[in-house]
Amino acid sequence: MKKNEQKMMLHDIFVQKLQSLLDVEQTLVKALPKMAKAASNPELKKGFNEHLVETKGQVERLKEVFASIGEKPKALKGDAIRGIVKDGEWIIKNVKGKTALDANLIAAASYVEHYEMAGYTAALAWAKEMKHKDTERLLKETLAEEEKADTKMAALGKSIVFPEANTL
Ligand SMILES: [Fe+2]
Fold it and tell me: What CA–CA distance (Å, rounded) separates 48 from 40?
């Protein structure tokens, strides 16, 4: 592949990845309030609500990313995030018992975070390859937020399910 062709291909797959990430974040803006509502533990409820605010910020940041490469923001609808969200809805409907439900909500949130981290990691690698410095910085910010949210949720999970082992 010629260098110019490679550059064009990279730009195209990068834009597509951003479009799919925008769909993921927008889908989560709708799903997170349901998770917050279903949670019993006040810290967990708070955690979901805080991540909702963060996710709204991530939608805005993605729009900045589009602008940084001269593209208009557009969402590309994907099945995977809808499947993950559906699994979460199944949990809300079917898991009985407050602690069991909270623990399952945290596990569901972990699926979401890891899915997002995988997406942002790929986008970040391509931004680096294309030497888009501003874009890279913005994507790094979101990736760091997702990682932090996942770590926080995991710690919360331990404190809810195994309170005696709580080291928070
Ligand atoms: Fe996110």
Answer: 11
Q: What residues have a C-beta under 5 A from ligand 1, the ion?
A: 55, 58, 116
- The DSSP secondary structure of 8-46, one letter per residue, reads HHHHHHHHHHHHHHHHHHHHHHHHHHHHHHH--SHHHHH
DSSP 165: G
Give the distance (Å) from ligand 1 centre to CA of residue 160. 23
CA of 99 to the centre of ligand 1 (A): 25
C-alpha 166 – ligand 1 centre gap (Å): 27
Give long-range contacts, CB 8 A cutoff, 24+ apart: 1-8. Answer: 7/130
Q: Is 0.85 surpassed by the pTM of this model?
A: yes
- Provide the H-helix boundaries in 39-78: 42-68
Going residue by residue through the chain (168 aa), what tens digit of pLDDT does each one get? Answer: 788 888 888 999 999 999 999 999 999 999 999 999 999 999 999 999 999 999 999 999 999 999 999 999 999 999 999 999 999 999 999 999 999 999 999 999 999 999 999 999 999 999 999 999 999 999 999 999 999 999 999 999 988 877 765 554
The CA 45 to ligand 1 mean position distance, Å, reads 17
